Predict the structure.
Amino acid sequence: MNLATEKKSIVFVSGYRPDKLLNLRWMQFTYDRLKRKVLSIADLPAKDLESFCAIASPLKYNKGQILLKEGETCRNIYFVQQGYLRSYYTRDGLEINTGFHFEDSFATNLKSLRTQLPSESFLAAAEPVLVFRFTSEMMKDLYARCPPIVDFGKKLLEILAIEQEEELNLFRLYSAEERFRHFERTVSYKMVLMLKPLYDIVHPGSLFPRYIELGAFRPLTRRFIELNIPRETAIYLSNRRRRFARMDPDDRQGLIREIRNIRSRLPIWYQIQ
């Protein structure tokens, strides 16, 4: 498979070679996810599905990189394999978000793509992202060669139009609290992780605030303290002993055995605590 570099921080892999994909595990995984998404929209024959994958250009963008600038004409559709994109416009120097495009979704500026007028918004990587790029020129050529893909293209544009309308309604018609609830439902798997530290702090009986006071922010350090090891020794063991870093913090007996094995080799201060 041929590798090339587009500018410095955008890498793409050209050419669809199923026989070579095993050399890049994430590429095999990406094509599988792309195929599942396409088939969830339209039941394409196997040969047409392969033809669709063949025109895809896998790209990697760093956080903040622009895929479409305001004022440019949109000529691409992107499939988000990893990470997410955001759409926004600028007003008085401020960036105002109009939509987010998460994994396993297609993203574009539909108005600019269909009318070939300049885009009124930006499309950018909100974090490091892996995408598939489909150009409008290659899609048109594929429509001529593979009629079943025409039906897929129509359904995809319908889905994009509905999603954009829902996003605009979210900002135009709903309150801040309602938007938060929508966001919580849509990406709850990340929201829960974001809120967990707050839950740990306010939960009755939680030791989390005490661990913060002790400087025991690592799970392994907290486990040592729970085993009645003094704070200084617990921090020393978790910072200096690589063997403990490879152990499961929940393996209490294993930790105790290892501490006994190395006790004589510890600095005298940590031995006598």
Remarks:
- Confidence is low (pLDDT under 50) at residues 1-29.
- The beta strands are 2-6, 10-14, 57-61, 66-68, 76-82, 85-91, 94-101, 105-107, 122-125, 129-135.
- The chain has two domains: 2-173, 207-272.
- Residues 228 and 253 are 14 Å apart (CA to CA).
